[in-house]
């Protein structure tokens, strides 16, 4: 898959702003970014559901804009929202999508069997799809999207609203498919899921802000070292830290603040004193290694106005 | 185009129709309900018009005259009153539409051979009914007056008398001049116009609303396969509904069917493709089920009712309105169906209407698939 200078405008709004990507067979390619960053738009262009304003997208060796129908035969797509037919039975959904993808009659039994096995729905073939729990629905949707053995699989936030156990199972399935040589292109805003990907692209406001493997991103993106500070009250501490001497960046993560400083060990004493001077009680202050979330905040803060990145996540 | 994809969509659609109670209600209950409502609700006949009489003389002759009104099935003499105010009141409150007043010197002047006038007061709020009532009452009195004349002439020596001119009328196609014979085939057209559009109006909008369209269009299915696959089951249902309506018209309302069944099926099939495609088109444009059903109702019911020649003959309309009727599919189907029910003309006389429907159906299929393609970008 090869994407060059892809642009999509909706009126004045630029949803995808000169995005270029490349993914190799068998790679799990993570597309990471906040809601509205342009992830879904990009994926829908690559699936031939939207026409790009400009730029080039080759999927499975075919130009998506010119031959969307041929591309669709080679890809599988699973949208954000559950999109199988709730009023059809499990087996009826499988049959329907097998028909859509021209799965030969001879292979039908074997493929259907594989989907049922994979989704854990054996014995529930004639249950109405709408009555299944979310995790099962999601795996069935995945099964229906790959009935025709596509070489590229597009998953648009496949695990939103799925419980943690089902999410794990789902990612195991994705890994198994990648091992079979399927390129998996997945969007997510769960940072922990991003760690499962072989390669990540961070997208913000339609632009690619960074790309690389999770570990490359973590080591390369932040300008300094990270300190975790647990303190009371958080709001006042954050305001104080953002103007504190030697602090490059500060952001709230859960119940703590992450602060970027040139040297973590040396900054501890100074910052503790500085904070107590601002009527903030520090209960914990220690150096930590950056997570993808830190990377993301650091990168998007550079792009956006100060303070805006906090709202994003 | 791949037939197996078309078949897969049609199969899916059938399963969904069968599982949805509402769609079954639309398919079965709606045509019957509409046939009954319109078949009985719309009547252009004037019968049993309520009449009050005021006989100011009370002679045998005046009573004899009023008896003529009592005997007519067009009039229903409700009451005889003995003063004017009662008559006015009855006209005012709608107890009667027609009031007949016989003058106090009726028999006197009649016997003197002089001209006698009868007064008829008519409620003309509905001018159509008033006109018919007037014509009927004139006919009743004319007949009576003629009989008196004949009696008089015979009593004075002439054996036989021949009225100079008479009309030998034979009404064709609707022999007993019952408006129901004209209305019921028209109702079939209205019902099918509305139901045809409704059947498909929700089908695409529903897929958008439920989010299933996203998955569907990510498959290799083409716009044409999708449209034809979705129309196919509704076409079968629509044909069954048409037969249901026609059967109802023939068996329940007793309307004759004189034409050929093959012309009927050809015309109905073409019309169905037009209205189903129209519904599909609305569904593509609207993207929401509510909007699609509202557009459908507006776009089919009124035009089918007013501009198809159902109630108002098209050649009596202003030229501009006549021009508009040419794009109304119901207009052509109305001609065809009335013809096939009542006249039974050969197909050579109906080619124009059939071609018009065929043209409209092709046009709509092309437009609907094009618009669908555009919607995605």
Radius of gyration of chain B: 29 Å
Number of helices in the DSSP assignment of chain A:
12
Tally of discrete structural domains of chain A:
2
Oligomer: heterodimer
For the structure shown, list the relevant keywords:
heterodimer; A: alpha/beta; Rossmann fold; Alpha-Beta Plaits; 2 domains; 4-stranded antiparallel β-sheet; 14 strands; elongated; B: 377 residues; alpha/beta; 4-stranded mixed β-sheet
Report on this model:
The complex is a heterodimer of chains A (313) and B (377). Chain A is α/β, with parallel strands linked by helices. Chain A has helices spanning 39-46, 68-74, 90-100, 105-119, 134-145, 164-179, 191-194, 214-221, 234-242, 264-276, 292-303, 308-312; strands at residues 2-10, 13-22, 28-32, 54-59, 62-63, 75-78, 152-156, 183-188, 199-204, 207-212, 225-232, 249-253, 256-261, 281-288. Chain A is 38% helix and 27% strand. In chain A, the strands form three sheets. In chain A, strands 6-7-8-3-9-10 form a six-stranded mixed beta sheet, sandwiched between helices. Chain A has a four-stranded antiparallel beta sheet with strand order 2-1-4-5, with helices on one face. In chain A, strands 12-13-11-14 form a four-stranded antiparallel beta sheet, with helices on both faces. In chain A, a hairpin with a 2-residue loop joins strand 1 (2-10) and strand 2 (13-22). In chain A, helix 3 packs parallel to helix 5 (134-145) and helix 4 (105-119) packs antiparallel against helix 5. The longest helix of chain A is centred in the middle third of the chain and has 16 residues, at 164-179. The model of chain A is unreliable at 305-313 (pLDDT under 50). In chain B, helix 1 (3-19) crosses helix 10 and helix 2 (21-41) packs antiparallel against helix 7 (179-201). Chain B is α/β, with parallel strands linked by helices and 377 residues long. Chain B is 67% helix and 6% strand. Chain B has a four-stranded mixed beta sheet with strand order 2-1-3-4, with helices on both faces. The longest helix of chain B has 29 residues, at 127-155. Chain B has two domains: 3-43 and 178-375, no CATH class; 49-155, abc type-2 transporter like fold (3-Layer(aba) Sandwich). Chain B is built from 15 helices and four strands. The chains are: A alpha/beta (313), B alpha/beta (377).
């Amino acid at each position: 898959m090869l994407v060059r200078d892809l642009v999509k405008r909706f009126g004045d709004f630029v949803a995808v702003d000169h995005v270029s990507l490349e993914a190799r067979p068998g790679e799990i390619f993570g597309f990471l970014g906040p809601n509205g960053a342009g992830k879904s738009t990009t994926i829908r262009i690559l699936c031939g559901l939207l026409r790009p304003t400009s730029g080039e997208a080759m999927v499975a060796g075919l130009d998506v804009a010119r031959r969307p129908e041929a591309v669709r035969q080679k890809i599988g797509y699973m949208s954000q929202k559950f999109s199988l037919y709730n009023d059809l039975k499990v087996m009826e959904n499988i049959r329907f999508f097998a028909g859509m993808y021209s799965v030969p009659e001879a292979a039908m039994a074997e493929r259907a069997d594989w989907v049922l096995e994979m989704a854990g729905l054996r014995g529930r073939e004639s249950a109405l799809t709408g009555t299944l729990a979310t995790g099962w629905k999601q795996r069935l949707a995945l099964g229906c999207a790959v009935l025709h053995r596509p070489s590229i699989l597009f998953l648009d936030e496949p695990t939103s609203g799925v419980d943690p156990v089902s999410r794990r199972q789902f990612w195991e399935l994705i890994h198994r498919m990648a091992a079979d040589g399927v390129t998996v292109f997945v969007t997510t805003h769960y940072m922990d899921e991003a760690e499962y990907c072989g390669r990540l692209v961070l997208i913000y406001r339609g632009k690619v802000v960074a790309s690389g493997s999770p570990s490359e991103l973590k080591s390369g993106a932040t300008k300094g070292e990270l300190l975790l500070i647990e303190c009371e009250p958080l709001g006042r501490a954050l305001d104080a830290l953002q103007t504190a001497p030697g602090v490059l960046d500060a952001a709230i993560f859960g119940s703590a603040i992450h602060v970027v400083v040139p040297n973590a060990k040396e900054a501890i004493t100074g910052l503790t004193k500085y904070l107590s001077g601002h009527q903030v009680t520090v209960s914990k202050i220690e150096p930590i290694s950056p997570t993808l979330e830190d990377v993301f905040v650091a990168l998007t803060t550079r792009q956006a106005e100060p303070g805006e990145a906090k709202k994003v996540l | 185009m791949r037939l197996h994809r078309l078949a897969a969509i049609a199969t899916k659609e059938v399963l969904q129709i069968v599982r949805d109670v509402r769609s079954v209600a639309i398919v079965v209950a709606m045509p019957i309900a509409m046939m009954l409502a319109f078949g009985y609700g719309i009547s252009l006949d004037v019968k049993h018009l309520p009449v009050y009489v005021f006989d100011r003389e009370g002679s045998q002759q005046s009573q004899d005259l009023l008896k003529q009104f009592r005997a007519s099935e067009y009039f229903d003499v409700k009451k005889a009153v003995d003063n004017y105010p009662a008559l006015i009141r009855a006209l005012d409150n709608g107890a009667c539409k027609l009031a007949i007043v016989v003058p106090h010197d009726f028999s006197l002047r009649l016997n003197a051979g002089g001209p006698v006038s009868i007064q008829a007061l008519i409620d003309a709020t509905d001018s159509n009914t008033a006109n018919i009532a007037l014509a009927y009452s004139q006919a009743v009195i004319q007949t009576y007056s003629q009989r008196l004349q004949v009696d008089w002439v015979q009593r004075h020596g002439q054996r036989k008398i021949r009225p100079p001119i008479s009309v030998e009328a034979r009404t064709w196609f609707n022999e007993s001049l019952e408006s129901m014979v004209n209305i019921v085939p028209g109702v079939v057209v209205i019902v099918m116009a509305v139901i045809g559009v409704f059947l498909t109006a929700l089908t695409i909008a529903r897929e958008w609303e439920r989010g299933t369209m996203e998955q569907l269009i990510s498959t290799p299915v083409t716009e044409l396969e999708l449209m034809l696959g979705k129309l196919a089951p509704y076409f079968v249902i629509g044909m069954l509904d048409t037969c249901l309506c026609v059967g109802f018209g023939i068996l329940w309302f007793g309307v004759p069917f004189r034409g050929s069944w093959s012309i009927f099926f050809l015309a109905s099939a073409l019309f169905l493709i037009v209205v189903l495609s129209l519904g599909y088109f609305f569904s593509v444009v609207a993207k929401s089920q509510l909007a699609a059903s509202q557009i459908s109702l507006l776009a089919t019911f009124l035009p089918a009712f007013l501009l198809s020649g159902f109630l108002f003959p098209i050649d009596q309309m202003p030229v501009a309105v006549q021009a508009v009727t040419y794009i109304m599919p119901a207009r052509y189907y109305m001609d065809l169906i009335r013809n096939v029910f009542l006249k039974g003309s050969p197909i050579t006389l109906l080619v124009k209407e059939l071609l018009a429907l065929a043209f409209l159906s092709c046009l709509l299929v092309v437009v609907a698939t094009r618009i669908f393609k555009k919607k995605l970008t």
